[in-house]
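re: the backbone from monday

yeah here it is again, tokenized this time
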């Protein structure tokens, strides 16, 4: 019995996470569709003039709206974090064109000349990712090839 309950909970969680991948407007439409039966039920009760307290109706409505508002809030926060991650990647891509200064270059001009003789039309870029990490990009057009070299300097250098 316990494994049955655990499997049910796992499936419900997986469905909930899949629903969070939907766009916000689709979630809002689904929430509105889920609210429709309860609103129709309340309108029928009001039309029949049955005696249901206002407090009961408010609590029932809050019981439906609050979880749905939390779902939309969670979705909006996850989208904000995705936007932050994408903007950071965009900033990193913009900074990728910056090379290291000539005195701090990892690949010497002699090595570049040797590589150019070995592979014709080889382009080499260097970019400082971190104070200890330099990314060297090698790109060749014919045949198309791109490869990367990450140089990690583990020896701390004193500041000038």
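seq for it, each position gets an aa:
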């Amino acid at each position: 019995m316990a494994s049955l309950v655990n499997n049910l909970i796992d499936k419900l969680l997986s469905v909930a996470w899949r629903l969070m991948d939907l766009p916000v407007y689709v979630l809002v439409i689904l929430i509105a569709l889920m609210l429709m039966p309860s609103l129709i039920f309340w309108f029928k009760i009001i039309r029949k003039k049955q005696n249901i307290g206002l407090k009961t109706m408010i609590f029932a409505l809050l019981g439906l709206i609050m979880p749905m508002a939390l779902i939309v809030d969670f979705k909006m926060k996850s989208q904000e974090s995705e936007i932050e991650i994408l903007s950071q990647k965009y900033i990193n891509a913009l900074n990728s064109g910056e090379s290291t200064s000539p005195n701090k270059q990892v690949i010497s001009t002699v090595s570049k000349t040797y590589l150019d003789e070995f592979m014709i039309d080889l382009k080499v870029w260097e970019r400082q990712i971190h104070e200890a990490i330099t990314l060297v990009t090698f790109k060749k057009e014919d045949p198309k090839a791109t490869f990367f070299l990450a140089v990690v300097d583990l020896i701390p250098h004193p500041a000038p």
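Residues 132 and 156 are 8 Å apart (CA to CA). The chain has a mean pLDDT of 76.
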